Every structure is written in C-alpha cells, then in structure tokens.
C-alpha cells in the first residue's frame, strides 16, 4: 500500500509510519517543517513538506495521487490557541478529506478524540471544548463525503509501551490508551473493511489488536 499521513511528524504518526514501513508499505508524511524530514526517514517513511494551514486542495491532492489510504492524524497541539483549533483540527481535516476525494483516494482514516460527541454539553469558552467542537465538525464533514471513511476516537493518550491489548468498539466508556497501540490499530484499520462508515472508540483493554479488528 501507499499511505499518506497528514500530521506526519506527530507522535502517533511517527509510530504508525514505523509500523507500516516495517510491514513493507510506502508511507509519506505531510510535515510543515523541512527539518522534520529526517525523523520520518529514520522510521522508514518519506516526507512531503506542505503546510495544511497555508496550502490548497490541489497541492494536497497532488501528494495524495496514487495513494491507497489517506490518514488524518494532525492536530494543533495542547499548547496552541483557540484559533488553531479551527484552522488545524477542523480546517486542515476538511481540506485533507476534500483533497482525497479529488485524488480518488477512497480509504480515509481520521483520528479524532474521545468526547467529541459531548462537546455541546461542555463550557463553550473552555479551550478543550473548542478543540472537541473542531474535531466534531471535522467528523461531521467527513461523514458527508463519498469516501470509505473510519473515524477513530482514542481515549487519553499515554507514552507507555504498547501492550497490544485494547477495547475497540462503537462505545467504550472513558479510559486511556498508549500511542503505540493507537498506531497499531490504525495500521490494522487500513485493511479492515468492516470499519468503513463507523466511528470507533479505543482504550486499553484485554483483547489482542488483531482479534479486536477481526471482531468489528
């Protein structure tokens, strides 16, 4: 497979690139900073330098051309202000999905956030609520597109070593999950047709990842 990942230098994306490249797939990560190219190369991928906040659909579609899977794993980050929640967590996701449609890349995975469906119940002025609302808006946009999409909502992310044991379901309840295991699940979802058209939650659990994917 040829896989293109938006937010290619992110913690999950680098782990995902390593997993996919290790399985023999071609992985291209979109990065804003040219200095980050070396980090993608180190884990077996390659980089396309493109700022999703400043580019257009045509430029992104050009990178996506010929891909089998498009994965949106970008995020403004916890230290960013409310404006970038809109331009990255919503705007960049919408741009990437539109570019995938234009490039004819049907398989589309989008990393969202646990709690996105509860954003309207929370303090509208809180920065985290604004982040969740942006993620929810990106989800809603993707659901309306002619793509074979899957939305993944991980729980609280940790840097603990992956266990390979998860709970993956339409609803899991709150919990945490390691970035290692998120990456492993995303790699598996690339080739799991049963996940198409579904919004899935993911936390640490007792089920081996391969079994969790095959049980969808």
TrEMBL record:
Entry-linked InterPro entries: NAD(P)-bd_dom, NAD(P)-bd_dom_sf
Domain NAD(P)-binding: 7-192
Gene3D superfamilies associated with the record: NAD(P)-binding Rossmann-like Domain
Stretches of the chain forming a coiled coil according to its record: none
Ranges that cross the membrane: none
Protein name as catalogued: Putative NADH-flavin reductase
């Amino acid at each position: 497979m040829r896989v293109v990942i938006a937010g290619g230098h992110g913690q999950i994306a680098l782990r995902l690139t390593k997993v996919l490249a290790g399985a023999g797939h071609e992985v291209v990560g979109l990065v804003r900073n040219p200095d980050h190219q070396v980090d993608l190369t180190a884990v077996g991928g390659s980089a396309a330098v493109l700022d999703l906040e400043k580019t257009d659909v045509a430029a992104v579609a050009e990178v996506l051309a010929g891909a089998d899977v498009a994965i949106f794993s970008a995020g403004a980050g916890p230290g960013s202000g409310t404006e970038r929640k809109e331009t990255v967590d919503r705007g960049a996701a919408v741009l990437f999905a539109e570019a995938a449609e234009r490039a004819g890349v049907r398989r589309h995975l989008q990393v969202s956030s646990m709690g996105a469906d509860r954003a309207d119940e929370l303090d509208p002025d809180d920065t985290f609520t604004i982040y969740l609302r942006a993620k929810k808006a990106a989800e809603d946009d993707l659901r309306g597109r002619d793509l074979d999409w899957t939305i993944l909502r991980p729980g609280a992310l940790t840097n603990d070593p992956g266990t390979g044991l998860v709970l993956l379901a339409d609803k899991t309840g709150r919990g945490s999950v390691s970035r290692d295991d998120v990456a492993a699940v995303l790699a598996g979802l690339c080739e799991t047709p049963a996940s198409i058209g579904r919004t899935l939650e993911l936390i640490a659990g007792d089920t081996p990842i391969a079994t969790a994917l095959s049980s969808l």
